[in-house]
Write a structure and sequence with these properties.
Layout: H1 12-16, H2 25-28, H3 34-46, E1 51-54, H4 63-70, E2 79-82, H5 91-95, E3 100-104, H6 105-113, E4 119-123, E5 130-135, E6 150-153, H7 158-171, E7 179-182, H8 187-192, E8 198-202, H9 206-212, E9 217-221, E10 231-235, H10 237-242, H11 244-263, H12 265-272, H13 282-299, H14 312-324, H15 335-338
Length: 345
């Protein structure tokens, strides 16, 4: 998930977002406890238990999984593991030290097209987190208003970049119609200083945290229908073939945690305190709750959403969109190759 680009969600870029003036708030204090949790997960993997990997540092965005673990939803031996700072989001999964990873479904598809054996088995975000963020007083009021404007993005890769491409497509614009600037993870500084007119970011962390840091902003959605698969549950074909029943149980347990997360953001914050001790500070906890509520809107965007489900048609749309923009590698991928839902709508 680039929300740790992401996003995570959940990809790591969102979690690494420096917001221009240095990593602030909940993200600044998230590393506490990661080492011991990773050691526990490694021991669990050695003992044969499933390990669920989450990109980069602990964060309230991963609270569905913390809640599922705390509530005893997972089978005995299932453990959670956060990645190291220099670790690729699919490295441990491909090495066999993780069995599920929470990561951008679109990024998993791109990785699969580059020769990595990956398959998406469950959903997390049912609405894509990518958006365009502008100052509250900006004259950019819709996507068409981006014509002739500058858009800041960390780089031309990952979910923030895909979001820019969707936004341009939705507005009937091309890259030639705007000034795309690769600004690294300095979104807030670039926006506040006027270096760029707009930035690509994520509705559930970048937009929330910039506002928390004192800069009023507006979100412009990137389209009525976004042909991209957001944060999802990903495994490998080998693990799926060998441990399908265990994975099915883990997906269902994760969905139960997601439901609790959406229904009770206060419980989400409490569960996260075990992983992020700095949330004992009330201001930090309040900020984390705002992120939890915004993330919940992605997990259950409507009352009839089947939480945790995976829609194969959305995988096909993602493949078509990415392929049409030359973003896939040399390995041909189809929905059947990279999608095997263990929980469907």
């Amino acid at each position: 998930m680039s929300a740790p680009s992401a996003p995570v969600l959940l990809n790591r870029r969102a979690l690494l977002t420096a917001l221009g003036v240095g990593t602030a708030g909940v993200l600044a204090a998230c590393a506490s406890g990661t080492g011991s949790q990773s050691q526990t997960a490694t021991a669990s993997a050695s003992a044969g238990g499933l390990v669920i990997g989450m990109t980069y540092t602990p964060n309230v965005q991963f609270a569905p999984f913390y809640l599922a673990a705390a509530d005893g939803q997972y089978a005995e031996g299932v453990s959670l593991r956060h990645h190291g700072e220099q670790e690729g989001q699919f490295d441990a999964l491909l090495a066999g030290t993780e069995h599920i990873v929470v990561a951008g479904g679109d990024e998993a598809i791109v990785a699969a097209s580059n020769g990595n054996a990956l398959v998406v088995i469950g959903g997390y975000y049912q609405r894509y987190p990518g958006c365009i963020i502008v100052p509250e007083d900006s004259d950019i009021t819709d996507l068409a208003s981006l014509a002739g404007k500058s858009i800041g993005t960390p780089g031309k890769t990952g979910e923030t970049w895909y979001s820019v491409l969707v936004a341009l497509s939705s507005a009937g614009l091309t890259e030639d119609d705007v000034d795309v600037q690769e600004i690294g993870y300095t979104q807030q500084a670039a926006l506040a200083s006027g270096k760029v007119d707009a930035i690509a970011g994520f509705s559930n962390n970048d937009a929330v945290q910039i506002a928390q840091n004192g800069m009023p902003v507006r979100i412009i959605t990137i389209g009525d229908h976004v042909p991209l698969l957001g944060a999802s549950l990903v495994t490998t074909p080998e693990v799926l073939a060998q441990r399908r029943a265990e994975l099915e149980a883990a997906v269902m347990a994760s969905a139960a945690g997601m439901t609790t997360f959406v229904d009770d953001p206060d419980a989400a914050v409490e569960a996260t305190k075990e992983y992020v001790p700095d949330l004992v500070d009330q201001t930090q906890a309040d900020h984390a709750r705002e992120v939890a509520v915004a993330t919940g809107e992605l997990v259950r965007p409507s009352e009839d959403t089947v939480i945790g489900s995976l829609v194969p048609e959305q995988v096909g749309e993602t493949i078509d969109f990415l392929a049409g923009r030359g973003l896939l590698g040399e390995t041909t991928v189809t929905s059947d190759d990279v999608c095997d839902p263990l929980l469907t709508a």
